Fold this protein.
Amino acid sequence: MRDLPITLLRTFAVVAETLNLTAAAGRLHRAPSTISMQLSRLEGLVAAELLERGQYGVRLTPAGEQLRTHAHQLLNLHDRILGSFQNAEVVGKVRFGTHDQYATRSLTPLLEAFVLNYPEARLEVLCDHRPHYLAALVQEGKLDIALVEMPALSDGGLRLCRDELVWVCSEAHATHRREPLPLAVFVEGCYHRESACQALEHTDTAYRIAFTSQSRAGVLAAVRAGIGVGVIPRQTLEPGLVVVEEGLPPLPRADTTLFVAERANEATARLAKTIEESPQFQRYRGEPAG
């Protein structure tokens, strides 16, 4: 019986997640041709076709779906074992604050990797929609690190990348044509909500708050249902939503920003480095964040 190299399984796991060879190559810092060769080698080892390649990406075959589950379990066990030996000295509590937008999307694989690689560190995560509040908690010593979305060119923190806020509505509803304009937004204190209200008031556009939630999932569910128009970063657009390019005032840009306490422990420093170096953010870096 032949062994399955961890490198090949890790490549397959990323491809299975992205369903795009180019995106997977960016995540893994390898050429797309290298990704293709590794996948072909893995298919040879398991004697089964794992992917169906198409013009716009790839799709998992039944064998690929089966391997994805096993690969994920094996990679987690591998990383946990390796982390217990290599990073056993990295201990302590890491109090991490972030927005629901990051916690449910780009941060998921990073936090999973951190927990596996640093099993002796104790990660505590606080999700809040108010960026200035989380940044203040870091300054007050109540959090060790925070990843938030701040107004572009504002002061403080390490700017990782920049994106623009956009209006979005459902593919099935012309919600943006209603008067007054119904909004589906986070509760007060959210940068998205503040930006939307300021832009509408500046152009004397009548609006009303039709739906509020403390979670991104709740807001976007309301947008898909046609209850209101939402505001999100362009690069986080999801299926079922369309960007409203005309008829509404432009929205500002925002910086994904990392705040780290001055006296952070080693575990916090490791998490900060994991976030800073992650292709999850670098892959949509559009312009210098400074």
About this structure: Confidence is low (pLDDT under 50) at residues 283-290. Residues 62-86 form the longest helix (25 residues). The first strand starts at residue 51 and ends at 54. The chain has eleven helices and eleven strands.
